């Protein structure tokens, strides 16, 4: 993983600004993440601790996180022992991806207690553990590790904390000569040979660095090996030592250069040293927290949303496919109904020429008096029916086809409406946050599409008014965006004033967007239209049609699906979203 021991060392150094500050609030926005709001020594900062198995990290964050209505038990425990406490120290254990945050707090009896939050950033084994600093007893962990999972170390309340197992690697910060450097590499080679069942070729320089020294990720090792390979005329061993020593001297002095290198295919990497071996664009950052914030961005949140919405996506796609199939069958029925007049004409011909055939006949040839040329037509008969019953059989077919046309057209319109509704939900899930997902799930439960997932005896809380995403235009005006039908209905039907301007992509599933101002310039209108296009099914396209009108001209028909409205007196503009311009607009979540 890219977050290696050196990145964590840079983060721990940067977090020293928080030592001496007090923990004002603790939140747990997800099952993997904690946010500690601090006050005091380093100013008001938010510290993110994440044991996400894919994106584990620790850094100061500027992002806002949506918290559950009821805090999880681990969050409540941390509030009990750490909220109001003072951060005594933040230290990395050797060059390992383990961080200890010591917190001193005075309990309700006035006694001082010292707790340690241990953050282990080890991929899928990542964890956040609260321990008693004096005894090493675990109060709890954000992820439990039972004896069935690991016989070596248990993470359960009341058990004693055991550090992750040693890997037998050397601390690179203690290597101050080429002789010690070579000895460490040779020791790693010997360990590798002992573990191999059969002789194998010598390891590549980057793999030797990873095997010999703690804190080195494969990415960092490849960078140093690449730099050494570019040293013209130098002995390979000498060149590798030179680059290793140069990098370590910069790391000892905390002369870090946090940066992100992005390949042409979009794949990105980060480190505390320039990644010259990776082709593509590079971005440098003033601090490691800023770098990590930019790198991870919404990745962890998007992954969490994907896991949460997988069942809903499958359900909605299945429902959409059913309605498309239903529409095809109804179209076929409608096509058959076009023959209604043919059945009536044949019934009338049989009535006229009833004397020309009798029971038992399979067909009859008669003159078609509807034809100008008086051509003959052969009419199929049911031999088991009388002439009169055969005529009535065609009249019944005529009546059935005629009567079914209206019903089928009504059913087809319902199916189209259902497809439009399902398309809108699929579009909303594409840009939904965790809170948005829960509102969409509640909507599906209320509509009878899904069953409620409440436990027995659990009382469902009355839904609060939804929070809305609000952008500030370049003219300083608020632009609200509804990201699901619950938010759309609240925004359009309750929050917005009659003189506000409402926007929506023309005939394309998307968000309701409202400019909450009676007067505004072209730049605000353009930005609102860009947001409407960005939060729509047409995202990524160009010249997207966006309708806009006043709220007073927007109405919800009686009995319509959630989020569906009709409007008039609209104007249409065609807009190509400028993603950089959208990102530059300040945004916040408002309740």
From TrEMBL:
Coiled coil: 317-344
GO terms, molecular function: ribosomal large subunit binding; rRNA binding; tRNA binding
Protein name: Rqc2 homolog RqcH
Subunit description: Associates with stalled 50S ribosomal subunits. Binds to RqcP.
Record Gene3D superfamilies: 1.10.8.50, fibrinogen binding protein from staphylococcus aureus domain like, ibrinogen binding protein from staphylococcus aureus domain
PANTHER family for the chain: NUCLEAR EXPORT MEDIATOR FACTOR NEMF, RIBOSOME QUALITY CONTROL COMPLEX SUBUNIT NEMF
Family membership noted in the UniProt record: Belongs to the NEMF family.
Keywords recorded for this protein, A-Z: Coiled coil, Protein biosynthesis, RNA-binding, rRNA-binding, tRNA-binding
Cellular component GO terms, alphabetical: RQC complex
Record gene name: rqcH
HAMAP family: RqcH_B (MF_00844_B)
Pfam entry (one): NFACT_N
Domain NFACT RNA-binding: 470-558
GO biological process, one term: rescue of stalled ribosome
Function field: Key component of the ribosome quality control system (RQC), a ribosome-associated complex that mediates the extraction of incompletely synthesized nascent chains from stalled ribosomes and their subsequent degradation. RqcH recruits Ala-charged tRNA, and with RqcP directs the elongation of stalled nascent chains on 50S ribosomal subunits, leading to non-templated C-terminal alanine extensions (Ala tail). The Ala tail promotes nascent chain degradation. May add between 1 and at least 8 Ala residues. Binds to stalled 50S ribosomal subunits.
């Amino acid at each position: 993983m890219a977050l290696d021991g050196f990145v964590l060392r840079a983060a721990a150094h940067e977090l020293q600004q928080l030592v001496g500050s007090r923990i004002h609030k603790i939140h747990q926005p997800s099952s993997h993440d904690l946010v500690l709001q601090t006050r005091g020594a380093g100013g008001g900062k938010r510290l993110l601790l994440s044991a996400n198995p894919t994106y584990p990290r620790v850094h100061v964050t500027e992002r806002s996180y949506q918290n559950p209505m009821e805090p999880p038990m681990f969050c409540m425990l941390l509030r009990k022992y750490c909220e109001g406490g003072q951060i005594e120290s933040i230290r990395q254990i050797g060059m390992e991806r383990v961080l200890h945050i010591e917190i001193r707090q005075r309990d309700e009896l006035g006694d001082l207690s010292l707790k340690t939050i241990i953050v282990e950033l080890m991929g899928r084994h990542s964890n956040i553990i609260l321990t008693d600093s004096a005894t090493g007893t675990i109060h709890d962990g954000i992820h439990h590790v039972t004896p069935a999972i690991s016989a070596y170390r248990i993470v359960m309340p009341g058990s004693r904390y055991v550090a992750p197992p040693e890997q037998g690697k050397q601390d690179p910060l203690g290597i101050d000569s080429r002789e010690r450097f070579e000895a460490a590499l040779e020791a790693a080679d010997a360990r590798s040979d002992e573990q191999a069942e059969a002789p194998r070729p010598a390891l590549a320089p980057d793999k030797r660095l990873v095997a010999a020294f703690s804190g080195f990720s494969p990415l960092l090792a490849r960078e140093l090996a690449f730099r050494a390979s570019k040293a013209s005329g130098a002995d390979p061993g000498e060149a590798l030592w030179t680059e290793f020593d140069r990098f370590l001297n910069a790391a000892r002095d905390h002369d870090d250069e946090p940066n992100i290198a992005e390949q042409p295919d979009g794949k990105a990497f980060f480190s505390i040293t320039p990644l010259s071996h990776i082709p593509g664009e590079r971005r440098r950052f003033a601090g490691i927290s800023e770098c990590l914030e930019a790198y991870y961005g919404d990745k962890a949140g998007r992954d969490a949303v994907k896991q949460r919405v997988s069942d809903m996506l499958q359900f909605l796609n299945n429902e959409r496919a059913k309605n498309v199939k239903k529409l095809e069958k109804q179209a076929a029925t409608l096509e058959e109904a076009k023959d209604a007049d043919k059945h009536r004409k044949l019934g009338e011909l049989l009535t006229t020429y009833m004397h020309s055939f009798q029971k038992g006949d399979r067909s009859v040839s008669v003159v078609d008096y509807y034809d100008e040329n008086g051509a003959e037509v052969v009419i199929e008969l049911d031999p088991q029916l009388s002439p009169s019953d055969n005529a009535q059989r065609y009249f019944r077919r005529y009546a059935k086809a005629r009567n079914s046309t209206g019903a089928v057209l009504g059913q087809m319109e319902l199916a189209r409406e259902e497809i439009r509704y399902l398309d809108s939900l699929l579009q909303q899930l594409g840009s939904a946050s965790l809170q948005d997902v829960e509102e969409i799930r509640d909507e599906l439960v209320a509509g009878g599409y899904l069953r409620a997932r409440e436990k027995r005896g659990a009382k469902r809380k009355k839904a609060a008014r939804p929070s809305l995403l609000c952008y500030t235009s370049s003219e300083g005006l608020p632009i609200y965006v509804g990201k699901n039908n619950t938010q759309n209905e609240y925004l359009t039907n309750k929050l917005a004033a009659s003189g506000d301007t409402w926007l929506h992509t023309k005939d394309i599933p998307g968000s309701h967007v409202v400019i909450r101002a009676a007067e505004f310039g072209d730049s605000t209108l353009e930005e609102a239209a860009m947001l409407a296009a960005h939060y729509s099914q047409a995202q990524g396209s160009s010249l997207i049609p966006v309708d806009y009108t006043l709220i007073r001209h927007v109405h919800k028909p009686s009995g319509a699906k959630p989020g569906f409205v009709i409007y008039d007196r609209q104007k249409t503009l065609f807009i190509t979203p400028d993603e950089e311009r959208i990102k530059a607009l300040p945004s916040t979540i408002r309740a």
